[in-house]
Write a structure and sequence with these properties.
Blueprint: H1 2-12, H2 29-46, H3 49-163, H4 166-179
Length: 180
């Protein structure tokens, strides 16, 4: 469409009129732009811009590599720590389970010992009570025997004193002497 418009404009002005292009020092604008670009590139090369850009990029690459290396090292350390803590957690769980089992076993032993000790104590106290009762019985029987003997002796002494006087005792004493 643009071509049709240009063709129509050219037909109005006559046959395709030669368009004059501006020049300076014998070069058209395209040549000046190319020359300017060559000059800019020459200055870049003369000032060693590509080298400094390369060095800058190399430095940045080295920094990034160092950061990646450090990140990799940190990741490995973190994984090692994670594995270590997981192992410690498992070990702690195992120790906790072992502690619970030991506590249960000790509790059973304590209960068993307490029952045994209580039984032994009851038996010992029962035996002591029985022995004390037996001792009290023996003491009471001995006391009864002593009291009975005292009463019998006192009664016999009264009977003998009442039935015997010095005259009646003389023939008994003489008979006892003669038998000796």
């Amino acid at each position: 469409m643009l071509e049709l418009m240009l063709a129509a404009a050219a037909a109005e002005h006559g046959e395709a009129a030669a368009h004059a292009t501006p020049t300076a020092l014998g070069m058209d604008p395209t040549q000046w732009v190319a020359l300017t670009m060559l000059a800019v590139f020459a200055i870049f090369i003369w000032k060693k811009v590509p080298e400094s850009v390369g060095k800058s990029l190399d430095k940045k690459i080295a920094e990034i590599k160092a950061q990646l290396s450090e990140a990799e090292t940190l990741r490995k350390e973190a994984e090692a720590l994670k594995a270590e803590y997981e192992a410690k957690a498992k070990a702690a769980e195992g120790e906790a389970a072992a502690m619970v089992e030991r506590a249960k076993t000790e509790a059973k032993q304590i209960v068993t010992k307490a029952k045994s000790d209580a039984k032994t104590l009851v038996e010992r106290r029962s035996k002591m009570a029985e022995e004390k009762i037996a001792a009290e019985e023996r003491a009471a029987i001995a006391d009864i025997h002593a009291t009975a003997a005292r009463v019998a002796a006192a009664g016999a002494a009264k009977l003998v004193a009442g039935a015997h006087d010095a005259k009646s005792d003389k023939p008994l004493v003489d008979k006892a002497i003669a038998s000796l």
